[in-house]
Amino acid sequence: MGRKTTAACLATLAALAFAAGSGAHARGDEAPHAASRVPARGQAQKALTASNASRWKLKRTLTGHQGAVYSASFFPDGGRVVTSGDDGRVRVWNVRTGRLLHEIEGPGGTVSDVAVSPDGRLIASCTDGDGARVQIWDAADYRLRRTLQGHEEGVFEVVFSPDGRLLASGGRDKVVRLWNVATGRLVRKLEGHDDAVTSLAFAPDGRRLASASGENDDTVRLWDVRTGRVLHTLAGHDDWVTSVAFSPDGRTLASGGRDRRLILWDARTGEKLRELRQPEMVYEIEFSPDGRAVAEAGGGGLVRLHDAQTGRLLSTIRAHREEINEVKFAPGGLSLLTASYDSTVKIWEPAPPSEEKRTPAKWLE
């Protein structure tokens, strides 16, 4: 998973205080869902090609957050989405209907990131505000399972390892922490960045972790998860590095930043493979499930999809009227989501050929 800096860390905004306990509440008559079914191993991936990625249509808009939405993540089966933002709430939505299923009230302050475990049974969240908490919730009954304390300042990012046994977190205190999900025990601290940790991503095999850092550092570091040793320090940005993401095969690492660069690296050697200059700041990047495309989003409310091998621009989605803080592909499919400062989350899918001439203005409705 690539996962992504949030606009909270870029702007270093003061958290909006919400008087809330650590409770979870069902929405209306919706019963708690069982853990998401994990797609069968070896399930065929739908290929994202130049022909079917040229135009996208808006499938669903999720509204309910009060303030910026900083993070969103699909469950493994693609049927639900979890979101968080400035209002201190974690929300779970039905993708097909757009209905709000549950709302979790956090401990106060901005909920800067959320992540779903690979088996769909857990939700992790973190706060950039009072307490700097990392919390793990049950995805079936939405009760708080564990609070992980150790960060000295606000936390920007949480990400599960591919096997779901570890949770990595990072933020303002410049330290990456690795936690045992089952026990809540701190396994290891990864220290060396000279500024806030803005984004984290595990390699698909779980053996390496990529971390990005802010303006007094501007680097990406590749760590050996087992030993905590730095394998490579990747220097190519000259401003905040806001997002990192591994390709599905683990061979390529992408990084994006406020310097308007999207850089592709050889994840084994640390060699720079390609650099793509973008018109606006890059806040978030994500590879498609088949690895053929890489999406970047940020300033201007636009999402751009590039061919991951050649860097060629495949399409541009005029997704939001304000900056985009998140872009994520649905597992095993073609749809993707975007989350923005405009308080909305949108679900997109490729438009059929008959709809390819639809005007971009309609995508914003």
Explain this structure.
With 365 residues, the chain is an all-beta fold. The chain has 2 helices and 29 strands. The strands form 7 sheets. It has a 5-stranded antiparallel sheet with strand order 1-6-5-4-3, with no helix packed on it. It is globular and about 55 Å long. It starts with 6 loop residues before the first helix and ends with a helix.
How are the SSEs ordered, and which strands pair?
Layout: H1 7-11, E1 24-26, E2 56-63, E3 69-74, E4 80-85, E5 89-94, E6 100-105, E7 110-116, E8 122-128, E9 134-138, E10 144-148, E11 155-160, E12 166-171, E13 176-180, E14 186-190, E15 197-202, E16 208-213, E17 219-224, E18 230-235, E19 241-246, E20 252-257, E21 261-266, E22 272-277, E23 282-287, E24 293-298, E25 302-307, E26 313-318, E27 324-329, E28 336-340, E29 344-350, H2 360-363
Antiparallel strand pairs: 1-6, 2-29, 3-4, 4-5, 5-6, 7-8, 8-9, 9-10, 11-12, 12-13, 13-14, 15-16, 16-17, 17-18, 19-20, 20-21, 21-22, 23-24, 24-25, 25-26, 27-28, 28-29
